[in-house]
Design goal:
By secondary structure, the chain is α+β, with helices and mostly antiparallel strands. 41% of the residues lie in helices and 21% in strands. The strands form three sheets. It has a nine-stranded mixed sheet with strand order 1-5-6-12-11-10-7-9-8, sandwiched between helices. It has a five-stranded mixed sheet with strand order 14-13-15-16-17, sandwiched between helices. The chain has a three-stranded antiparallel sheet with strand order 2-4-3. It binds adenosine monophosphate (AMP).
Length: 434
């Protein structure tokens, strides 16, 4: 390919095999969203730059695709679906509360491309707007788990905590100014991404003392079954109100999950804080145990202050999962190889005289909902069979003059390499049965 027509960095095409898998993944996800009563919508892919900045501040310009349109408006491509959903729900007062909205689409981030990290990628996203209860947090966690189960990704773990709990803990260590708390949380968020030495270096870089850093490491190490972790957290003896509220919100959400029969895979992990400043309650991440280096498959949490920025004060909580990372996890577990888009039948003509009959059969099969291909290249019978074989088409119907005269067709099973003669109607019935 000519160098100048290369794809831009971080972008990729999706071939038919991967697309087959993606369609299967989307179907599973939509089916689970429907089971949970989420309504599917699609926020606009382009937002005003101000709308995008409202969530993350002007520094977000470095991390997104933004531009001026021909009329000089500053616009940006969406970097997540939460912004659009929050903006939508803030402007649509006709949607009854709590509003359970979901979307599955692509987004763009000017991220550094690496394993499981692209500049254009797909997410499913589900948000509950208008409920302050931990039940709503548990609902999106349960939904995320059911989505992974439906995708047959059963080797995952759910790490839950509360941003409030972490903030309360930092306050108890005299880290109280908002900027210092947020900067410290951003370092804590790197727990799974960088070494302990690097983390310590970053904490010291924020001006924290040795005792404080040790205290934070002790807090981050609380990663256990909910009962044990709650006991360890209480033993820290932190009395501030935020910390206590954090404990009780985590406890309530975990109780709901337990009652739903979803307690087993859940770990209370105090190091989960989510990097972005707008989270303020329960937070969670889900990891594939077989590939922890992949990063979170799903992440989410409560963001009670975000909708107010868009003009409507609504508590909210939600989850988002990455489709590309899901595909990488499925490939590792061996599930991915089984999906492809290929026709079920190739109708081959043995000789020119059979062509009209081939077209008639093709039309009838398609009318019955069967996926069918036939020769569009004027190939010999041998060439047609080779084509069907190399495309993994499981059945070939061979139609020749002699067969037409006798009212039959030859059906070849390409996998078993066997061929049998069938009456025309019998064959159509057989192939349309699935
Ligand atoms: P976030 O919106 O950053 O909370 O991400 C939610 C999910 O989207 C993550 O758990 C990942 O699965 C996925 N994700 C985030 N960033 C990327 C990226 N650059 N490339 C691919 N997937 C991503």
């Amino acid at each position: 390919m000519k160098e100048r027509y290369k794809l831009p960095r971080g972008m990729k095409d999706i071939g038919p095999k991967e697309m087959g898998l993606r369609l299967w993944i989307s179907d599973r996800i939509l089916e689970v969203l429907n089971r949970y009563g989420f309504r599917l919508v699609e926020p606009s892919p382009i937002e005003g730059l101000e709308t995008l900045e409202a969530k993350c501040g002007p520094s977000v310009r470095k991390e997104i695709y933004w531009f001026e349109d021909k009329a000089g408006r500053k616009l940006g491509l969406r970097f997540d679906l939460t912004v659009g959903l929050a903006r939508m729900v803030a402007s649509r007062r006709d949607i009854p509360l709590p509003a359970k909205l979901a979307a599955l689409s692509n987004m763009w981030r000017y991220d550094e491309p690496q394993h499981g990290r692209y500049r254009c990628f797909y997410q499913w996203d589900a948000e509950v707007f208008g409920s302050p209860l931990p039940d709503a947090d548990a609902e999106v966690i349960a939904l995320s788990m059911d989505i992974l189960d439906a995708l047959k990704l059963e080797n995952y773990e759910v790490r839950v905590s509360s941003r409030r709990l972490a903030e309360g803990f930092l306050n108890s260590l005299q880290i109280e100014k908002l900027e210092s708390v947020e900067a410290t949380l951003r370092v804590i968020d790197k727990f799974r991404k960088v070494s302990r030495e690097k983390l310590a270096e970053e904490f010291y870089g924020l001006g924290l003392t040795e005792d404080t850093v040790e205290g934070i490491f002790g807090f981050m190490a609380i990663q256990d079954s909910p009962e044990k972790a709650l006991k360890r957290l209480r033993e820290l003896g932190v009395e501030n109100e935020k910390f206590q509220r954090g404990i009780s919100e985590v406890e309530s959400a975990l109780d709901v999950l337990k009652a739903m029969g979803k307690g087993e895979r859940v770990i209370l992990d105090a190091s989960i804080v989510r990097g972005l400043g707008y989270y303020d309650g329960i937070v969670f991440e889900i990891y594939d145990r077989a590939d922890l280096g992949l990063g979170a498959l799903v992440g989410g949490g409560r963001f009670d202050r975000l909708c107010k920025l868009y003009g409507r004060d609504l508590p909210a909580t939600g989850a988002a999962g990455g489709i590309e990372r899901t595909i990488l996890a499925l490939e590792k577990s061996g599930v991915a190889g089984r999906f492809d888009q290929k026709p079920k039948v190739f109708v081959a003509s043995a000789g020119e005289q059979a062509k009209i009959k081939v077209l008639e059969i093709v039309a009838r099969l398609r009318g019955l909902g069967v996926s069918v291909e036939y020769d569009l290249k004027g190939r010999s019978l041998k060439g047609q069979l080779e084509y069907a074989d190399s495309n993994g088409i499981p059945y070939v119907l061979i139609v020749g003059r002699k067969e037409i005269e006798r009212g039959v067709v030859r059906l070849k099973d390409m996998e078993k390499r066997v061929e049998k003669e069938l009456g025309f109607d019998e064959c159509l019935k057989l192939l349309s049965r699935g």
